[in-house]
Amino acid sequence: MKLKLKNVFLAYFLVSIAGLLYALVQLGQPCDCLPPLRAAAEQLRQKDLRISQLQADLRRPPPAPAQPPEPEALPTIYVITPTYARLVQKAELVRLSQTLSLVPRLHWLLVEDSESPTPLVSGLLAASGLLFTHLAVLTPKAQRLREGEPGWVRPRGVEQRNKALDWLRGRGGAVGGEKEPPPPGTQGVVYFADDDNTYSRELFKEMRWTRGVSVWPVGLVGGLRFEGPQVQDGRVVGFHTAWEPNRPFPLDMAGFAVALPLLLAKPNAQFDATAPRGHLESSLLSHLVDPKDLEPRAANCTQVLVWHTRTEKPKMKQEEQLQRQGQGSDPAIEV
Fold first, then answer.
1. Pick the catalytic residue: 92, 112, 159, 281?
2. Residue 334 annotated among the catalytic residues of the structure
């Protein structure tokens, strides 16, 4: 046993000596490890350089934001609004006018359902600060809602919208504001904005560059959370609606805009007062475009930027009681 351990120790000693001698011999040989060391050093140098560049970027002031186009370079948005006398009329128009005042390069065509302009609307327009054209046309008696009829029985605002289209086509009729229509070749877009809706100013950015007819969803309309086009691969392929989905254009009045050159190129395109319920929009659009050529906006019709809101009709019981007592509110104070 002692002999075996001695032999093992001797073998281990000889191997160690041989290894040491080999290492001493290699010390005199040229080393091939320099290229990897040089590559590692270069990588460290490049990282240091990149860190220095990033630190310099952080110290540099941020670039100036891209300048938006000058207002004169923007196509004009012609907003057509029919309106009629009622207790909440001024409140509705004030709200709408203040939204429109946030939109550059906008021309408001406000059309009264009356034989002549009223002081309330004339004064509001003059104080609005907006570029405007004031028009007035009375809805024929046969087309007016009768006492007790719901609002959906007859289309409303037809004569007023058509009056505005006539003005844009150079057929005159303005009673205030800008009386000359846009000259031929004017680039613009026409939008029909009822005075009781709610509008995001982002909506007007979406419609500004309409080439034909642009479309988007409308919230709180048709008994749905929203109603509007369905889009696939950037094209309108259908409509999300619950009532008469087979209409040519199942769109709300607030859900589309038309390029001004297209309207002027179709002089007979207008709204039809005799159109069936829900077909008023189709009566105009059918003259202008095919459904497949509609231009989806608002992130491919996935964003709601306009809502079909309605102001509750005020209850005037106390006012009526005071009037019977000869103590009603001062009629000289405009509401």
1. 281
2. no
User: What pTM was computed for the model?
Assistant: 0.78
For residue 296, the SS3 value is strand
- Check pLDDT > 60 for residue 35: yes
Ramachandran category for residue 258: left, alpha or beta (phi over 0 → left; psi -120 to 50 → alpha): beta
Question: Average pLDDT in the 12-18 region?
Answer: 67
Specify whether the CB–CB gap between 299 and 309 falls below 8 A.
no
**Farthest CA pair distance, the chain:** 137
The strands making up 176-177's β-sheet, listed across from edge to edge, are 176-177, 131-136, 106-112, 76-83, 188-192, 256-259, 213-215, 295-296
Of 241, 126, 249, nearest to 177 by C-alpha is: 126
Nearest to 269 by CA among 169, 119, 126, 123: 169
* CA proximity to 157, closest of 313, 270, 258: 270
Q: Single out the residue of 241, 174, 11, 195 nearest to residue 85, CA to CA.
A: 195
Residue 228's closest CA among 127, 302, 311, 289?
302
Of 261, 260, 280, 278, which Cα lies nearest the Cα of 270? 280
Exposed e or buried b per residue across 13-29, where buried means at least 16 C-beta atoms within 10 angstroms of its C-beta: eeeeeeeeeeeeeeeee
Q: What is the spatial distance between Cα 80 and Cα 83, in angstroms, rounded to a whole number?
A: 10
Q: Does residue 43 have a pLDDT over 90? A: no
Residue 145 binned pLDDT confidence (cut-offs 50, 70, 90): confident
Q: Give the model's confidence band at 46: pLDDT under 50 very low, under 70 low, under 90 confident, else very high.
A: confident
71-90 pLDDT, tens digit each? 678 999 999 999 999 999 99
